[in-house]
User: What shape does this take?
Amino acid sequence: MPAIFEFSLTIQPHEIDGQGHVNNVEYLRWLQDAAIKHSSAQGWTTERYQEAGAVFVVRSHLIEYLQPAFVGEEIKVVTWVSTFGKLTSLRKYLVVRSSDKTVLVKAQTNWAFISWPQRTPRRCPPELIAAFELVPEDQEPTANSLSVNLSTVN
Assistant: This one.
């Protein structure tokens, strides 16, 4: 069960906007995909959340677009959970171009845990919190741990 989760994809023509690079909405989709895939890898699938009668919803996103990406490029989406509160969780992300190890996007999402279908705040259960190894700020991915150049992140 990885504390830092990653997956790769190749940028498709439909993900390109009128300026010839990846549309900002696609990055947001990839971040959400990373969160769902990481959660599933930790044993918290969509079905498990449904059984628990609760889900995570987005409270806020912060996305820093550092460099553009283009059709045909392979990228890596990296994510980890930074903190868990009683009702929320902060997840962070990097999107990296594989060919030159350039960080394209640095982001974070503040997720709120709510009951479903009531949509009221709910405490994160201990078994959910225990499923994720938190990555403190001083242990976040570095160039060495991911084999990417993170010099553009700071």
